[in-house]
Amino acid sequence: MAEPAWPEPELLSVASAPAPAYGSGSLADLLPTLAAGMGVPDTTATIAELAPSDRNCVFLIDGLGWHQLLDHPDEAPFLNSLVASSRGGTGNPITAGFPATTATSLASVGTGLPPGAHGLPGYTVRNPDTGELMNQLRWNPWTPPRVWQPYPTLFQRADAAGVHTAQVSSPTFRDTPLTKVALSGGNFHGRLSGEERMDLAAVQLAAGERSLVYTYYSEVDGKGHRFGVDSDAWRGQLIHVDRLAQRLAEQLPPHSALYVTADHGMIDIPFDEESRIDFDEDWELSAGVALLGGEGRARHVYAVPGAEADVLTCWREVLGEQFWVAGREEAIAAGWFGPPGVCDERVYGRLGDVIAAARDDVLITASQREPKESAMVGNHGSMTPAEQLVPLLEVRT
Question: Over the stretch 53-76, which tens digit does the pLDDT of each residue have?
Answer without folding.
Answer: 999 999 999 999 999 999 999 999
